[in-house]
Amino acid sequence: MNTTRPRWLASLPHVRPQRQTVAEPRRLRITLLLEGLLLMLGIWAALTVSLPGQYGQLEVGVPSPISIWAPNEVSYVSEVLTAERQAQAANSPDNLIYVYDPQIPVQQRQNLVVLLDTITSVREDPSLTRAQRLTTLAEMPNAALEISEAQADVILTLDEVRWDQLRTQTLALYDRAIERYDFAIDERALLQLRERWLTYWLATTNLSPTQRDLATFFTESFLRVNRTLDEAATAQRREEVSNNVPPQSVRVLAGERIVSTGEIITPEIIEKLQRTGAMPRPLSWSDIVGRGLFSALLAAGFMAYAVIYEAPLAMRPRSLVVLIILINATLIAARLLLPLVPAWPHYFPLATMAIIFAVVFSGRISITASALMAAVIGVMEQDALPLAITLVATCVVAVLAVRSADRILTFFIAGVSVAMTAFGMTLAFWLMDSPSFQSATISTALIPMLLFAGMNGGISTILALGVFNLVSRAAGQVTPLQLMELAHPSRPLLRKLIREAPGTYYHSVAVGNLAEAAAEAVGADALLLRVGAYYHDIGKTIRPYFFTDNQMGRENVHNDLDPMTSAQIIVDHVREGVKMAQAEGLPSQIVDFIATHHGTGVIRHFYQQALQQQDSVNEADFRYPGPRPHTREQAIMMLADSVEATVRSKAQNGKLAPSRTSDGQVSGGLNGAMALDELVKSIIETRVREGELDLAPLTMHDLTLIKQAFVTSLQSIYHPRVDYSPQTGR
């Protein structure tokens, strides 16, 4: 027994027959180191692992490999949109300034008329031969065009009617071209006329192909640009318009999808990602090292807590490994799932693990593990302190709600509590971050908050109910619900105990009452103790009549046996009980009670008989195999078993006196009878003196409380009776 918190590494038992053994000190140190390393690697992986493309560089014009949502609400002036609006305003056709000369089309038409009149006069000049006419047309000076000999030959070949028709259609074609663009022809209009309109219009006339070619030649030759762009004035206008464009403001809501998988990246998307802090950034070596250091510190802190404040768990490598694996799996799941629902990370069902840890292990380790996971998730989500606080709050509420977990209803209560807490915390942070208080906005936000909060609570409850039993079996832990099942009298071993060793069964029930009262006094696991008490003596069912519990009306069979044989039969009930419990598949915690409820104590009665009969006796032959109790519950079980058996024996033999009263009277009785409180005290002191409680984390104050609980419970059973003398008649 320790008067202060035990030094866990110096107080490890060396031999335990249970299925899950406590490791040797050196081996345990190595195991704890490896477990801490496993936890660190899991946290490190959760902080660095990502979805495909999550840490890749996004490039403009390339499809996005992932979908990204805005983690926060952000308002900013967009340089990209402002530049686009300025470019659109500057490139508007309204900003083009032209220099326009309306006289050029008129003058060019006059020149065309003069040319056609000149050709007509050459055609009609009787003084010229055909050869001279060809030469005159080919050498006719004109700045607009130069007639080739082939064209001149065609002109002279046409008769008067066809020439007049050509002349008329040419002037009409020119006029139509000028009117088409309202006497304002620029380079673009001139190009369209030459490539499209002149050919189209001539096709609607009755001119021959030869005439059409000449009409096109004459018209194109005299079409001139009379509308030109003023570069300087246009540039000035564009600059003025661009400067007048107001800055473009952008508001990105929290949870808004910025880019979808496969969407082409644009400069606007890049800007949104940068402004909202959602831009994927490749992890550098410093990032990786920093996250590794952070993981190592968290893992070291958690393992130190487990070793110092949860020593029974730390001494069970199997349980601690399962706990660490679940922590790592939860963090990696959060890393992979939260990017898929970035708008609502506050509703990640972390409370599932809190409920499972509280039911399978303990509330304290559950809160500690939940705080660790919430801190990691907060760092994972860009140092989101409100997120971490919300997750911790939901986990704490869940742990408080399932503190007993002896009914299915407690899981549903925990789910409702988680939903209410998640909703309240999210609403609180939303109100603090909201720029203005508007009832319409609140009503719009409440619906998704309520929906996701309800889903959080429901998922937490369903997953916890479905998984906790598997986790408890994997960790070798026993849950309150399992204990409630084990306590039912219909269990095979209990039925066997009731039927074949009823005296032992009632002794076990009485031990359970004492142990439960003591556990409640010192804050131990009362339910575990009661169930352990029911099973601690099941080994007596092998030879029930060799134990005084079941010898009512029978002769003591040990009277015909030698002391060593009797001692071995008594000792065997521990060994046989362990075998029976293991064969039945009872949890290791229950098996531990069977193995430790006598510790390594000596069977004094038969040992003294042997000393009287023999000169030399080996005390080890009269000792229980142990081990000694190493938890508070096992120590309480040992004391409760000893106290109940001794007090009942004293009471049956008339050697139990009333306890000392408040006024100090009656501390003992006649014929060597002992007061109840003195008897309980002497039993506890004997166990302490023999060293049976050296490994148990009980303080002197705990022992005082246990003694008081025993005495109070026993007084209600063995209190002095009032002597009702028969009345005599007068």
UniProtKB/TrEMBL annotation:
Q: Which InterPro entries match?
A: HD/PDEase_dom (IPR003607), HD_domain (IPR006674), HDIG_dom (IPR006675), Metal-dep_PHydrolase_7TM_extra (IPR011624), Metal-dep_PHydrolase_7TM_intra (IPR011621), PgpH_phosphodiesterase (IPR052722)
Transmembrane spans:
288-308, 320-338, 350-377, 384-402, 408-432, 444-468
Which residue range or ranges hold the HD/PDEase domain? Answer: 500-655
Classification via SMART domains: HDc
Q: Which UniProt keywords apply?
A: Membrane, Transmembrane, Transmembrane helix
Domain of life, source organism = Bacteria
PANTHER family given in the database record? CYCLIC-DI-AMP PHOSPHODIESTERASE PGPH (PTHR36442:SF1)
Q: What is the name listed in the Swiss-Prot or TrEMBL entry for this protein?
A: HDIG domain-containing protein
Species this protein is from: Candidatus Chloroploca mongolica
